[in-house]
Write a structure and sequence with these properties.
Among the domains are: 142 residues, Serine Threonine Protein Phosphatase 5, Tetratricopeptide repeat; 85 residues, Sandwich (Immunoglobulin-like), CATH 2.60.40.10; 117 residues, OmpA-like domain (60s Ribosomal Protein L30, Chain: A). It is an alpha+beta fold. Helices cover 22% and strands 30% of the residues. The relative contact order is 0.09. The chain has 13 helices and 38 strands. The strands form eleven sheets. It has a four-stranded antiparallel sheet, with no helix packed on it. The chain has a four-stranded antiparallel sheet with strand order 3-4-7-8, with no helix packed on it. Strands 9-10-14-15 form a four-stranded antiparallel sheet, with no helix packed on it. The protein is elongated.
């Protein structure tokens, strides 16, 4: 069974359904052409392959056969037949098919051939606007990567082996489309487009981690039918719902039977329906009408409704008259009687290709999928800001990992939680080949570690730790570590940073941090080597710990005596050594008071050496008050006790 592509049916012209009597076979090719024209791609595909095997080739065969794969998202398979078209029937290889070939190359990540196909597209008279948009410069891949959001994708547990797509928020829950257990019902029809059953709407709970659970059918009443239902949108009060469904007619009202409705070519189009929520469930399901009385989607398709934030506009996808490409995003005002006003084409974002799956987040950003914008291949998700009138502005590609070379579509996003959901047919970790729903969440790594002394391994409380981005700019606020010398930063995945640590009496250290591609923890300790901040001092030569004083005190502390003992030993060993003692205070108290206090500290330090046998002639001492602070803790600057302590010190200058 080929990969299901229910969302492609919406990208082109809705869930198109072939009806009518079997076409008599005159030749296999005529039969294939007929099935192709009625969107029975699986049947047409097999017949075309048989025809080619029997030696029959033509431009139309290669075009149509390539399309049967292209519109089922089998881009790798489509490439070979589009290539055959270009090689064997170059004159009939129109820009339309060269554009598709280029997109297929992208989806197989052969970007060189994709560019070559676009060059041929240009030579054949292709739209230069499309070229500029699809290939926005030689570095367009780098541009997409640079603008990509920091996020990661996680497959949700409710995914089935079939197609799951089109998630939409419904209050605190989520509604999405799925074949799911409908495959077990043998009475259900199978769609000729891709040999897959029709989809229903399901509802699930969203847990605190964003995973989905408690899956059940959205409605046991009039919403789900034996045909396709998908992509709902709900009013703010949750009482009105718009959704997509195959066109069907009510017949035999007494029996309650239903029959499918078709257009002039015998094709069942997609329509938008409206339902009302009552106490006992959903009811009053009706086709949406325009104010002139016409029904939506009789001879064209309308799908993927999305309400504006104020509920006054309905955005949707259609191939109605005036469509720029294969399918465009439109909007129409909603009248008081629930009819729609004149539709407006959102031309600023629509292309000659396919746009679909509009969603508007709470910050009035429109997200949609397209294969006609600058992308990575297949359908990518794009965003654009809406103005007060509902019009779009500049378009931005969300980049990897939300987008891939495959089809990525139906994106929804919650700006408050910075999480969302997207459907994709990329190969998932669950091994499914159908469309699956993925949770999109910020990719964050918790970077932790301690600051320690390089030689002793001792913790270094009071050290300052900063994180810099790859441009050397500060990332977040710096941290002054506490008694445990530990730091912690939350950083983006797959980025490069530099971690810098500094501390008085130590040389700064800076190390590169390469962050993993997935959320988790990263442990990175950083070590500092002792430095000497005072040239020509015994502090450097003897690697002394700084001699500190208590607040408003000048007595020698026990920890200071340990360091002074080193000075004493050096002066006894080298009788010619003469030193000058400089003492300092913090900024608290008056300047005059601090000058006196620092001089007393200098004198007490000198007296300790004299008392322990050093001649007074080899010593001098002076206080400098608060004139030489080692940090920013000046008058009226709020600082911790640890920061003030760094200024209450004595150092030893060697006198020449």
């Amino acid at each position: 069974m080929t990969r299901t592509s229910l969302k492609i049916l919406l990208f082109v012209s809705g869930f198109l359904l072939t009806v009518g009597p079997t076409i008599a076979q005159k030749t296999k090719e005529l039969k294939a052409n007929k099935e192709y024209s009625q969107y029975a791609y699986i049947d047409a595909q097999q017949v075309y392959l048989d025809v080619i095997e029997q030696g029959r080739e033509s431009a139309q065969i290669f075009q149509n056969l390539g399309d049967t794969y292209y519109f089922n998202s089998q881009y790798k398979e489509a490439v070979s037949w589009y290539e055959a078209l270009v090689e064997k029937f170059p004159e009939q290889a129109t820009p339309e098919y060269l554009f598709r070939l280029s997109q297929c190359y992208k989806s197989t990540q052969d970007y060189t051939k994709a560019q070559e196909a676009m060059d041929l597209y240009k030579a054949k008279g292709g739209d230069t606007t499309a070229i500029a948009r699809v290939y926005a410069g030689d570095d367009y891949l780098e541009q997409i990567a640079a603008n990509a959001r920091n996020s990661e994708l996680v497959g949700v547990t409710v995914n089935s082996a079939f197609s799951d797509f089109g998630p939409k928020y419904f209050g605190e829950r989520l509604v999405f489309s799925s074949v799911s257990d409908t495959i077990r019902d043998e009475k259900l029809a199978v769609h000729e487009w891709n040999n897959q059953p029709y989809s229903d709407l399901y509802i699930v709970d969203i847990d605190e981690n964003g995973d989905l659970s408690n899956m059940e059918r959205f409605d046991n009443g009039p919403i789900n039918t034996k045909f396709h239902e998908s992509t709902p949108t709900f009013s703010e009060d949750g009482k009105t719902m718009y959704f997509t469904r195959n066109n069907f007619l009510e017949v035999g009202n007494k029996t309650g039977k239903r029959a499918i409705g078709k257009d002039d070519q015998g094709t069942v189009r997609m329509k938008i329906y409206r339902a009302t929520k009552l106490a006992n469930g959903w009811s009053d399901v009706r086709e949406v009408k325009f104010e002139d009385g016409s029904l939506n989607g009789d001879n064209y398709s309308m799908a993927h409704p999305q309400l504006s934030l104020d509920g006054k506009l309905l955005y949707f996808v259609s191939d109605m008259d005036g469509t720029v490409g294969m399918s465009d995003i439109w909007y129409a005002p909603i009248n008081e009687d629930a009819t729609l006003g004149d539709p407006v084409n959102l031309k600023s974002i629509n292309t000659e290709a396919r746009e679909s799956f509009p969603f508007i987040s709470s910050d009035n950003t429109l997200y949609f999928s397209s294969d006609g914008q600058t992308g990575l291949g297949g359908f990518d998700v794009f965003s654009t800001e809406l103005d007060d009138a509902g019009m779009a502005s500049e378009v931005s590609n969300l980049g990897e990992p939300t987008n891939s070379e495959k089809d990525d579509f139906g994106y929804i996003y919650n700006p408050e939680t910075k999480t969302g959901y997207v459907a994709s047919n990329r190969s998932g970790d669950q091994g499914f080949v159908s469309d699956n729903i993925y949770r999109v969440q910020p990719c964050l790594v918790k970077l932790t570690g301690e600051v320690t002394d390089l030689e002793t391994g001792a913790l270094l409380p009071g050290a300052k730790v900063e994180l810099l981005d790859d441009q050397g700019n500060p990332y977040g606020e710096p941290i002054v570590v506490g008694d445990d010398a530990a730091y912690s930063f939350d950083i983006d995945c797959s980025q490069s940073y530099r971690l810098r640590a500094t501390k008085l009496d130590y040389n700064p250290n800076e190390i590169a941090i390469v962050v993993p591609e997935t959320s988790g923890d990263l442990y990175q300790p950083i070590q500092l080597e002792r430095a000497c901040p005072y040239e020509n001092t015994l502090n450097c030569i003897l690697e002394l710990q700084t001699i500190y004083f208590d607040l408003d005190r000048f007595n020698i502390r026990p920890d200071a005596e340990i360091e002074l003992a080193k000075v004493l030993a050096a002066m006894k060993r080298y009788p010619e050594l003469v030193i000058h003692i400089e003492s300092h205070t913090d900024s608290r108290a008056t300047d005059q008071y601090n000058m006196v206090l620092s001089d007393r500290r200098a004198q007490s330090t000198m007296q300790w050496l004299i008392d322990n046998g050093i001649e007074a002639s080899r010593l001098s001492a002076k206080g400098y008050g608060e004139t030489q602070l080692v940090n920013e803790c000046a008058n009226d600057v709020p600082c911790s006790e640890e920061e003030h302590q760094l200024n209450r010190r004595s150092i030893f200058i060697i006198v020449d």
